[in-house]
Amino acid sequence: MTTEQLIAEIKKKKSFLCIGLDVDLNKIPQYLLKEDDPIFAFNKAIIDATHHLCVAYKPNTAFYEAYGIKGWQALEKTIKYLNKNHPEIFTIADAKRGDIGNTSTMYAKAFFEDLGFDSVTVAPYMGKDSVEPFLTFEDKHTILLALTSNQGAFDFQTKTVDGIELYKQVLKTSKSWQNSENLMYVVGATKAEYLADIRQIIPNSFLLVPGVGAQGGNLQEVCKYGMNKNIGLLINSSRGIIYASNDNNFAKAAANKALELQQQMAELI
Ligand SMILES: O=c1ccn([C@@H]2O[C@H](COP(=O)(O)O)[C@@H](O)[C@H]2O)c(=O)[nH]1
């Protein structure tokens, strides 16, 4: 998907909501465990109930890898279902990859070509040659971790190196990489006070912002400092939406939570 198509979808739906599909078999309604593929059955119900309210879905691959081959098959079925039935929706494999160049190329092929995701999250720690292989894929997006939502972000990301905070160095340096127009960045909703500085460095890039909902990030704060002329934000909520209830009405409860966020977004656009 191109960035222009993503922007058009945001404007059409008046939503920049990304729903995280982080499926934990201990948290889903227990009757689904009787299905052949409970993870896919859960995802399908959530997608069917919420697709008109969001512009992106983000399965975190950890929640699939944890269930071995069955988990990976459920991930594959989920992305194929999305691409077939909702090609207008932006898909994010939250996999946080990145390695030496030839290995990164294989990661990129796995997520972009084999599975068919629009984007993948990548860690910047190994530098330019670990990220550039992802950037060579046309109309695919690499979402680089910049300033993450967790407490550990303060261990390294905000430390000063050569007179500049490391997360700012990641933003500045990555702009010089080949095909950097295919970059987006992760900034945690819990770090909203950093967004004005971040927008000075990358005014036009899209930001994936996790941390609204279960982690306590504030949607209005994020929008105040992080929104740009094209909105430029994908706000993710995972547990806060998909586990709104774990009874027979879980999909409806998820849709109600998604609607609450979408309505708040519509007022901010
Ligand atoms: O900085 C980051 C980067 C990624 N995540 C991921 O986003 C979701 C958040 O889930 P919630 O249930 O809405 O808290 C999850 O997959 C994280 O691994 C993040 O939280 N922060």
UniProtKB/TrEMBL annotation:
State one molecular function term (GO): orotidine-5'-phosphate decarboxylase activity
Q: What pathway is it annotated to? A: Pyrimidine metabolism; UMP biosynthesis via de novo pathway; UMP from orotate: step 2/2
Kindly state a single biological-process term from the GO annotations of this entry: 'de novo' UMP biosynthetic process
What protein name applies here?
Orotidine 5'-phosphate decarboxylase
- Name the residues annotated as catalytic in the UniProt entry: 96 (proton donor)
* Residue intervals of the Orotidine 5'-phosphate decarboxylase domain: 16-254
Q: Where on the tree of life does the source sit, at the highest rank?
A: Bacteria
Q: Which family does it belong to?
A: Belongs to the OMP decarboxylase family. Type 2 subfamily.
The organism is Pontimicrobium aquaticum
Keyword Lyase found: yes
